[in-house]
Amino acid sequence: MLDAKAYLRIMRASAAYDLIVSLPFATPWTLPLVHTVLVWLGGALGLPGQLPPIDPMSMLLGNLMGSVVVVWSVARLRLGLAVLGRYDAVARFLFAAWQINALLNGLSLAILPLLIIEIAFGIVQLLPISEEKRLSLLDEQSVNVGAHS
Q: Could you give the CA distance from residue 116 to residue 148 in angstroms, rounded to a whole number?
């Protein structure tokens, strides 16, 4: 069981990680650089699987994903609400499911570290919080105050 302060630190750490990792996906100028690094990493380590070239649809979807995750990261960092960590855990398990599907369909194992981090942050953000009821009330008050300002 985590205390409230530890939980919020973990939630913010996951948001900071997402911001750093997702920002390069958010633009059509930086996504090809990420792609090149992943292709190089897979080749240098002799990892099985492939990373196909980026076509216009892959670029669009990668940029959309990166943009949404960047905004979601900033919201979690800025608002610091525990409930956002719970929602983030669900999103992480969805991302992990799609990453596993991609790996099973031949994507390079170069994404395996990202998958492991998704699952780890997902699990930790679902752990019970010792002061969850009080924290939930504080979240609600913060949202209500923010809505009226």
A: 40
Q: Structure tokens of 104? A: 């099973």
Closest CA to 6 of 140, 130, 137: 130
Contact 14, 89 (CB under 8 A): no
Q: What confidence tens digit (pLDDT) does each residue in 77-107 have?
A: 999 999 999 999 999 999 999 999 999 999 9
Do the beta carbons of residue 132 and residue 85 sit within 8 Å? no
Buried-state track 86-103, b at ≥16 Cβ within 10 A, e below 16: bebbebbeebbeebeeeb
**pTM for the model:** 0.86
pLDDT single digits (tens) 117-127: 999 999 999 99
Q: Which two tokens stand for residue 95?
A: 């991302």
Rounded to whole angstroms, how far apart are CA atoms 149 and 147?
A: 6
